[in-house]
Amino acid sequence: MRMASEEGVRPVTEVVKALRHNRHIADNPSYETIGRVSHMLAARKTLVYGVQVEGIPRSTANDLLRGKRVRGPIKLWQVLSLGATLRWIADQNDQLDADAMIPIPELRRLYYGAEQREPSASAGGKTAARPRHHWPPAGPPPSIGPVEAVPGAPGMSREREQATERLLDDARRRGSDAWWSAYEGVVPEWLAAYLTLEREAQEIRVYAPYRIPELLQTREYARHTIREDMPGLDRKTVARLVKLRMRRQELLRRSDSPEYWAVVNVRALQRGTVPPDVLRAQLKHLLTMANFRNIEVQFIKDEAARDVICPRPITIMRFAEGGYLDMVFVQHPDHGIYHYRNTDVAYFSLCHGTLAVRAIQPFEMVRTLLKALDRL
User: Fold this and answer.
1) I need a labelling partner for 110 at 20 to 30 A (CA). Which of 31, 64, 78, 352 fits?
2) What does pTM read for this prediction?
């Protein structure tokens, strides 16, 4: 897709996904709030993060963030004004990870595409080619520790980090009082706090690099993966772990269920060691789950995800009660690591947003699954 002018640009789905990610980081302000703030910034007639903001009607913000056409193609000024408005909203609250947002220059690049041509300021209206480059740059090494990849993050206050640390410590202590206590004998210590906090999350974002996420698994798929990951377990223990995983999935069917957003590597749709009948039933189950309004699943190709984050399952939990940072859980075969420092949270949030931008669109989930079923 090449374009000669802004008017010729058709809606760019990558931009929509980036804007939705930024709205999430800004704590999902209402469309009315977005419209009011954008008009306020426009009235100032000063640059906001390098953007001359124009007022965005509430209905336009709604259409943009839901990927609808806005009386024709999406305009660059709409994308940049919305991006600057969301950043301004996030910056007014020191409890939000504004630096985890996809930045304004990247919104511009996504609008034009990695190899598109942007209107030039030169005489005669000629265009200048924009060089291809990757974003984000090559980040931290695969071993994830304290992240330095988000420079200058003002982040949250130290008080919120301490509050989140206390939340994690409390979840670790609850043990016998937690909802999963009946399965205590088969729950490893490193997973216990996660199981407690998962039930209390308002929003859950996931990256699944090689398996269908556990909250979306069928019983037989769960049984196969548990046996494969822990081959020494006896049949009774496997059965209890499967039952526990099925109990966890009740979370997504509650009346107050959290928003669940998973980015899944397409490798999870390939047979590998999974018996074809088990995988076929699992893919059909995902088709059913696509009907849940609180669940969004995107698939990403391996080459698009490889330079973003190390290939470990990542879960980011946000809690309804204020005063806490998001909690990040990185799962390894025999242990899990919890992250709640501001720089870490900002890094993982940015990674998930980047994966979502690069991934196949959510509405193409059904087509992707049907193709995988055909291959079986």
Assistant:
1) 31
2) 0.68
pLDDT of residue 144: 31
Q: How far is CA 147 from CA 150, 156, 325, in A?
A: 7, 15, 16
- How many Å apart are CA 359 and CA 299, to the nearest integer? 6
Give the integer Cα–Cα distance in Å for 347 and 141: 13
- Under a CB-based contact definition with an 8 Å cutoff, are residues 228 and 220 in contact? no
For the chain, the three-class secondary structure string (H helix, E strand, C coil) is CCCCCHHHCCCCHHHHHHHHHHHHHCCCCCHHHHHHHHHHHHHHCCCECCECCCCCCHHHHHHHHCCCCCCCCCCHHHHHHHHHHHHHHHHCCCCCCHHHCCCHHHHHHHHHCCCCEEECCCHHHCEEECCCCCCCCCCCCCCCCCCCCCCCCCCCCHHHHHHHHHHHHHHHHHHHHCCCHHHHHHCCHHHHHHHHHHCCEEEEEEEECCCCCHHHCCHHHHHHHHHHHCCCCCHHHHHHHHHHHHHHHHHHHCCCCCEEEEEEEHHHHCCCCCCHHHHHHHHHHHHHHCCCCCEEEEEECHHHHCCCCCCCCEEEEEECCCCCCCEEEEECCCCEEEECCHHHHHHHHHHHHHHHHHCCCHHHHHHHHHHHHHHC
Q: Determine how β-strand 259-265 pairs with β-strand 201-208.
A: parallel
Residue 300's DSSP bridge partners are 265
Contact status, residue 371 vs residue 295, Cβ threshold 8 Å: no
Q: Which residue has the tokens 């309804």?
A: 320
Could you tell me which of 61, 72, 78, 57 has the C-alpha nearest to residue 20?
61
Is residue 153 within 8 A of residue 342, CB to CB? The reply is yes
The amino acid occupying position 234 is D
* CA gap 63, 39 in Å, rounded: 17
Peptide bond into 136 cis (omega under 30): yes
Q: What is the mean pLDDT, run by run of 10 residues, along the chain of 376 residues?
A: 35 77 89 90 84 88 72 78 92 81 84 48 34 33 33 54 91 85 91 94 94 96 94 93 96 91 92 91 91 88 88 92 88 90 88 88 80 87
pLDDT given at position 13: 74
Model pLDDT, residue 238: 96
